[in-house]
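Hi support team,

I'm opening this ticket because the web form for multi-chain structure prediction keeps timing out on my end. I have pasted the exact lines I submitted so you can reproduce it. The total is 225 residues across two entries, so I didn't expect it to be a heavy job. Is there a limit I'm missing, or should I split the entries? Thanks in advance, R.K.
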Amino acid sequence: DAMVIQNPRYQVTQFGKPVTLSCSQTLNHNVMYWYQQKSSQAPKLLFHYYDKDFNNEADTPDNFQSRRPNTSFCFLDIRSPGLGDAAMYLCATSRGPTGGAYEQYFGPGTRLTVT
Amino acid sequence: RKEVEQDPGPFNVPEGATVAFNCTYSNSASQSFFWYRQDCRKEPKLLMSVYSSGNEDGRFTAQLNRASQYISLLIRDSKLSDSATYLCVVNGRRDDKIIFGKGTRLHILP
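Hello R.K., no limit was hit. The queue was backed up. Here is the completed structure from your submission:
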């Protein structure tokens, strides 16, 4: 089945120790998104790629970086995780650009714990 | 006014009842609207898109009211498995940002 896959599902890292989360998709969608979601809050968009074009949200901390080496894969790098970065990180894809009638498909998420 | 607002609930509804909740949005230029369902500690899953003419999928009906700037979701004959958080998503024009509501929690009671 075509899908969005995230690895790992659970990640524990130490304060300040860099961590990379990965996302892959078999939907061949142009757009890939990274969201951060904390308990009882809406998903917060960090950035997205439209093909190779990177779009950073204005309020995304510099501590968060992303790479998209090809259509199928996208990575979220957290350079120096703080306790406040503990959250669920959701990857999503869509066929077309933000805006418009393109629904998003989400991966199962990576739950990050910072100790 | 917040960009997208939802009543956080929880809505506690007996099994078999009908429940409805709304989502209001502030940007009159918003183009596309969706309802997602999110189970506890899981990812959001698309429930339905909301079309101008409204749409229905089984027990679920979504409506758009552009004049009053809200969308609604109606669930008929509610099941225990409908218990979840329902997220409203609003898209602006092309390349505009996507706005998520904080969600409405629904508990279906046996």
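A quick check on our side: Chain A touches chain B at residues 40-43, 45, 57, 88, 90, 97-109, 111 (CB under 8 Å). Let us know if the file doesn't open in your viewer.
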